[in-house]
Structures are given as C-alpha cells and as structure tokens.
Amino acid sequence: MTPIKDRILFVTGANRGIGKALVQALLDHGAKKIYASARDIKKIPDFKDPRVVRVALDINDTAQLEAAAKLAYDTQILINNAGVLSNVTPLTGPFADLERDMKTNYFGTVAAMRAFLPVLEKNKNAAIANVCSIASFVNFPFIGGYCASKAALFSITQGARMELTAKGIAVHTINPGPIDTDMARDIHMEKTSPEETAKAIIKGLEAGEPDIFPDAGGRGMFEVWSKNYRDLEASVAASMDPAKAA
Ligand SMILES: NC(=O)c1ccc[n+]([C@@H]2O[C@H](COP(=O)([O-])OP(=O)(O)OC[C@H]3O[C@@H](n4cnc5c(N)ncnc54)[C@H](OP(=O)(O)O)[C@@H]3O)[C@@H](O)[C@H]2O)c1
Question: Quick check: 115 and 69 in contact, CB under 8 A?
Fold first, then answer.
C-alpha cells in the first residue's frame, strides 16, 4: 500500500494535464507536502496551498535532477509523470521524433529514478510511481515511437520493482488510456478527464495496486489484452482500416 495522507511527494510535469490534476488531488487527499516540478517554474499553477513547493526541473537535465533530489531530500513518493508524444509513424516519420520520445519518456524517467533512489532509500515507506500508458501493452502505429518508449518504461519499472521491493520501496506503474489533455488533443477516442484520472491513480496507489489502470478506456483495453494480447492488436489494426471503420 502507498498511502497519501501526511506523506511527502514529488511530481514531475506538474504544470498541466494529469500532473496538475494530480497535485490538486494529492492536496485534497491530505498529502503533507508536494514538490510540484516543471520545466518552466513560472508555468506551475498557483494551487493556493502552502504545502506546494515549486521546483524547476527538466528531467533530461542531469544537473537539475541532482539539485531537485538535494532540495527534496524528504521525498517519500516520487511520481514520474512528465512525458512527450510525437504524432508520427516510426517507419516514415522523422527519426528525431523517435529519439525525442525515447529521451524523455524512457531515459529521462530512468534518470529521475536514479537521482531520487538515495533519497527514497533513506526515507520510510517510500514509493515510485511511473506514468506509463496502455500504449505500453499495444502499439498504435501512428504514435508508434511513443508506444515503444512507454513499453521500455514499463519494462524497466517492472525490473525496478523486483529490485526495490526487498528494500521496502513500492514500485507502481500507472497505465492510462486516452485522457483529455494537450497530449491527446489529436487522438479521436473517448477520453477521461485528468481530474477523474488523478483520483483513480490515488485510489490505486492507496490500494497497493502494482499496476494501476485509472480510466475505463485503458482498463477495457487491458482486459482484452489480458485474455489474448493479439485481440487488442487486432482491434487497433481494425480501427485503422478505413474499410472496417466505414
Ligand atoms: N493524455 C493521455 O491520453 C495519456 C495516456 C497515457 C499516458 N499518458 C502519460 O501521462 C503523462 C502526462 O501526460 P498528459 O496527458 O498530462 O500530457 P501533457 O498535458 O502534454 O503534459 C505533459 C507534461 O510533461 C511535461 N514534460 C514534458 N517533457 C518534460 C521534461 N523533459 N521535463 C519535465 N517535464 C516535461 C510537460 O511540461 P511542458 O509544459 O514544459 O511541456 C507537461 O507538464 C505522460 O507521461 C503521458 O505520456 C497520457
């Protein structure tokens, strides 16, 4: 279980979308202190709460990660939420976009875990929660590089769980389906609000779910995948086939 009340959390990408909604939901759930971080500190909303500490952090910047871990020495729960998405197919889109997705979603998040590990090892009942995606389980070719980066992140999180459970650090993956944020602006599927998603993430953390599926869309896809992963692949393929979609 990863309880939230009276705990000290660090959230990346807290200026908008799921990260911003998470900070508010964590405050509502009685968190003791929240380090809300963003690349541009000026863009972090005014949560009108003294429990929020604003931190400038680009997760691709090693020096900033080291400084953040030093400043937030009392962090008990690290929520790696920051991420990017390139709307390109990996086979024909710009290669730089594939690298960008992998750099932030995989290498940047792993770097954040590494920077905060000594802090979490020192503090009691610590946890890491990495925002992966339902795209960790199936590749949507029109955002294929993003999906690959999230599959990589899911994999390394699974490995971290095996290593860190023995040290008393809980490790969660969070796997949303389509959520109504800037990132999913061009994805035309039914979407869940970031606020509802944030509440469900907290519920999953508090229940001690190793892999959290916070929204109905993602949960539905995971259920199909669990029965037969090829069925989910087939349904994604069918949704892209103009003949079948008509
Ligand atoms: N929306 C969905 O449908 C969906 C589904 C599954 C998973 N997710 C995941 O949920 C997480 C949050 O996404 P969202 O939907 O809330 O998207 P969003 O509104 O686009 O927010 C992305 C956040 O990540 C930050 N970020 C990007 N690169 C960063 C970096 N190098 N260092 C620090 N922060 C960085 C952004 O900051 P800036 O404002 O500076 O760019 C922004 O705060 C992501 O990991 C995403 O992959 C989203």
Answer: yes
205 contact partners, CB below 8 Å, separation of at least 6:
2, 3, 4, 77, 127, 129, 172, 212
Mutation choice for ligand 1 from 181, 187, 212, 221, CB with most ligand atoms inside 8 A: 181
Confidence of residue 242 (pLDDT cuts 50, 70, 90): low
> What integer pLDDT is reported at residue 240 of this predicted model?
86
- The separation between CA 56 and the C-alpha centre of its own chain, rounded to angstroms, equals 18
> By alpha-carbon position, which residue is closest to atom 35 of ligand 1?
82
Nearest residue (CA) to ligand 1, atom 43:
13
Domains in the chain, ordered, with CATH?
8-245 (3.40.50.720)
Query: Could you tell me the distance, in angstroms and rounded to a whole number, from the CA of residue 84 to the centre of ligand 1?
Result: 5
* DSSP string for residues in 141-189: GGGHHHHHHHHHHHHHHHHHHHHHGGGT-EEEEE---SBSSGGGTT--S
Q: Measured between alpha carbons, how far is 150 from 147 in angstroms, rounded to an integer?
A: 5
Residue nearest to atom 2 of ligand 1 (CA): 179
> For residue 108, what are its two tokens?
């940047």
This model's pTM is above 0.90: yes
